Description:
Number of strands: 16
Bound molecules: phosphoenolpyruvate, magnesium ion
Amino acid sequence: MQYKGDIVFEGYVTESVLVYDEQKRPRRLSVSKDKNEYDRFLSARISAIKTFDQLYATTLKTMSEKEANLFQTYKIMAEDSDFEDLVRSNINDKQTAEDAVTNASKQLADTFSALNDEYMKQRAADVIEVGNTIVDILSGNNQLVNLTKPTILLCNDLSASILMQINRKYLKGLVLVKGNINSHVSIFARTIELPTIANLDNSFALSNAVNGKRAILDGIKGRLIIDPTEEEVKEYGKLAKQYDEEVTSLKKFVGKPSVTKDGVKLNLYANIASALEIENVLKNDGEGVGLFRSEFVYLASKTFPTEEFQFNYYREVLEEMKDKQVVIRTFDIGADKKVEYFDLRSEINPALGFRSIRICRKRPEVFRTQLRALYRASVFGKLSIMIPMIVSVEEVDFVFDLIKKVKAELTKEGVPFKDKIPVGIMIETPAAALISDVLAKKVDFFSIGTNDLSQYTLACDRLNPDLNMTFDNKHPAILRLIQMTVENAHKAGIPCSMCGELGRDPSILPFLAAIHLDEISCSSAYILKTRKALAQIDTKKVDVNSYTNPK
Ligand code: PEP
Ligand code: MG
């Protein structure tokens, strides 16, 4: 059986499956007679602290101090006397140690979430994590940590801390059946370069029936094949070997320029959704960040992130990227990226609804907070600001008016900021592409979002897997809009980038180079591959019309 999912990190794996269902993990139903529940808690807590110490040490070796510090925080939380007091009082109320710990961590998380302090709010998820680790130890549910053979792990979702506890020597692939490609665990999976897919199609339901079965995880096409035929296993074995050789050979492109054979330059930048991904951007020699999807800062928060919190976050991203360009896209919330505290009405056609710049115009105070944070952070690096989902000149004028007000406020307050940050827009609607000649005179750069441009041009929901055949982002209509946009940008003397998924498709690269697109921004794992493909292209030999005319 074959199932489709979203790609989190590429690679091919053929191994046996371990099903891990967090919902079904064993829980004690009544208070133990033989051992005092409080003693059970204390000894599980000692083990958890040891685990956090080990995780700190391994993460420090394999990643950086920043990631490792998460486990120091967990350790401090596990040792905290308030946490211990809550567990004790829950046990006095006749709860099992497992329930007492679960409830204590929830109580503390609620307290943290209610505080008017961004740092403490972020700690709510951490204390839940600490509770889960102790409960896992109490219920003997650390089968994952003790993997003894190469495994593809199948679960609905997973916490980042459990992932980091699993022996990487045996964990070969990960399937997050209900996971999201931008969750914390997905970000960690990319950081440790673990082939992973997420969000499997609805025909797959997690069940113990597949436990121990052989499976193929195809992280290139985003497929899970359970019980493959011998032929499929052989075929995938060959693909895996080729893939490994290809990845190794790409290292020689680090430090090389991103140019075609005939010298046409096309900068290669990275798309990110979190500061944690910067390490990979630098490792893969990204020349900058071409799209930081800032809505993930909002998605990770339980309430509106404050100006101070956002300022610190953007500053960190800019400082880590040093003198390299960072394009931060203002929040693109709405459609499939709903945030509860925005309190958005449910819609019949969310993709055509109240989204990004449309929210900004109706709720300028929310947008203003983000713009203030961005301008304040601008002095710490090379920032550009990008506005998504533009369809009209009025929207662009609104943005520049608000920016003018924000700058005036900051000047009055004596807050330092860079006055001349490039401000650009995404061209991801047919309307924007069609009036790109006018828009180009108003902004500093364009970036083409082919994911939405394809969705809106083809009248085809980008999230509906039944429409995969129709969702052709290389359709001549889309390529014509792209060509028109690049030409209009250049006529007005501004650069044009592409940050949608089409940019990393090697089959379209000759066309993009030949029309002189200035930059491609893609997941960092694709940067060196694209640089290699670019070096083989001679733009003089590319027939642009053959791409823009239907066959
Ligand atoms: C796009 O639409 O191509 C794009 C890059 O934005 P997102 O995928 O975040 O909508
Ligand atoms: Mg988009």
